[in-house]
Design brief:
This protein is an alpha/beta fold. It folds into 2 domains: 14-137 and 269-341, Bordetella uptake gene, domain 1 (D-Maltodextrin-Binding Protein, domain 2, 3-Layer(aba) Sandwich), CATH 3.40.190.150; 140-265, 3-Layer(aba) Sandwich (D-Maltodextrin-Binding Protein, domain 2), CATH 3.40.190.10. Helices cover 42% and strands 14% of the residues. It has 17 helices and 10 strands. The chain has helices spanning 18-22, 27-31, 34-38, 53-65, 87-94, 110-116, 153-158, 171-183, 196-205, 215-221, 223-227, 251-254, 257-267, 284-298, 301-309, 319-330, 334-343, and strands at residues 42-47, 75-80, 103-107, 130-134, 140-145, 162-164, 188-190, 210-214, 231-237, 275-278. The strands form 2 sheets. A 5-stranded mixed beta sheet has the order 2-1-3-10-4, with helices on both faces. α4 links the parallel β1 and β2 (75-80). It starts with 17 loop residues before the first helix and ends in a 5-residue tail after the last helix.
Length: 348
């Protein structure tokens, strides 16, 4: 089936529309088998970002290929609900959003936000979401612009630099602050940039020395930066070293003792920022069908060929593996969470 893509902007005040949305999940619809329900239907991949950036790239590619693995071969569209670093979309999929399997969340690191952010803004429980699995892990790297004269970890420890980031609840801020705390670097971190594009432009203009950018954002849109050595990458923020950067260490391997526990807590959330999930009350047979479809997508030659051409990494984790990472974060001891908050500059 021809897949179409549509972009929709949602208001943050979604509870006002909750009744109408929940009405979509009628008893008759909930009683249908997956093939009956999805046949001729349009379903949405929902993400908590505006169009553009690495989430949008992955969402579009997944939307192009996953439909043929879902019973009934529905049409897939893409919807955007930016706000609160992805928590707005998480809140929506957990509560007022339709619980019939017609919307699939392209997740941010919701378990991390659940433990690290102000609970007043979190209305979901990541343990109760139905996780389909993870298609990658968000591979953020410390990119340093060539004009700064800094390129190594020693430079970060000795030079007075300014790094940029998005909101303080965004991984671009948290990783930069955690590296500063763990490695005792001298740079300062400023927040408030609204998009990765704005951060890239600020780096090119010399407003900031660099930022913790998603590797896929570089490879898919700024690959010349690496080839032309416009950026140096002295550090990556993943569970394991990137295959494309085998000589660049992870922050996790550079940490030890109590610091390592803190870094590992944040690193466990990286696959969850590249995962997909359904609302907590979606019928079990549709959850099973979509998990099977997601697993099939991860082995689909056409899908893998396109991700290779677009230089998008795929590191598949099953639903069970993803759920285990969720539990590891959500069930972490409060004392550890407090140490993480302090290390990433969360003083609230």
């Amino acid at each position: 089936m021809l897949v179409t893509t549509r972009f929709a902007r949602w208001a943050r005040a979604v509870p006002a529309a909750a009744g109408a949305l929940m009405a979509l999940a009628t008893p008759a619809a909930l009683a249908q088998e997956p093939g009956q329900f999805y046949n001729g239907r349009t379903i949405a991949i929902l993400m908590g970002t505006s169009p553009g950036g690495s989430y949008d790239i992955y969402g579009r590619v997944i939307a192009t290929h996953i439909a043929r693995h879902i019973p009934g071969t529905p049409t897939i569209i893409v919807e955007h609900m930016p706000g609160a670093g992805g928590a707005a979309a998480g809140n929506y999929i957990f509560g007022p959003g339709p619980q019939d399997g017609s919307k699939i969340l392209l997740s941010h690191a919701l378990p991390l936000m659940q433990r690290l952010e102000d609970p007043k803004g979190i209305r979901y429980d990541a343990r109760k979401l139905h996780w389909l699995g993870a298609y990658d892990e968000i591979a953020q790297v410390m990119a340093v612009w060539h004009g700064t004269g800094a390129s190594t970890l020693d430079d970060l420890k000795t030079k007075d630099l300014v790094f940029g980031s998005m909101a303080t609840n965004h991984l671009s801020y948290q990783w930069a602050m955690l590296a500063k705390d763990t490695l005792k670097t001298r740079y300062k971190v400023i927040s408030g940039y609204t998009t990765g594009g704005n951060l890239n432009l600020a780096m090119e203009r010399g407003e900031i020395a660099g930022w913790a950018v998603a590797w896929e954002s570089i490879t898919s849109g700024k690959s010349n930066w690496v080839a032309e050595k416009k950026i140096a990458i002295p550090l990556v923020f993943t569970l394991e070293r990137l295959k494309q950067l085998p000589n660049v260490p992870t922050l996790l391997e550079l940490s030890s003792g109590p610091d390592r526990e803190v870094v590992e807590f944040l690193a466990n959330g990286t696959p969850l920022a590249r995962a997909m999930a359904l609302g907590p009350n979606v019928p079990a047979d549709r959850v099973a069908a979509l998990r099977k479809a997601f697993a099939a997508l991860m082995a689909d030659p056409q899908f893998l060929d396109e991700t290779t051409r677009r230089k998008l990494a795929i590191r598949y984790r099953t639903a069970e593996e993803t759920q285990a990472l969720v539990a590891r974060i959500v069930d972490a001891p409060p004392a550890l969470v407090d140490r993480v908050k302090k290390a990433i500059g969360n003083t609230r």
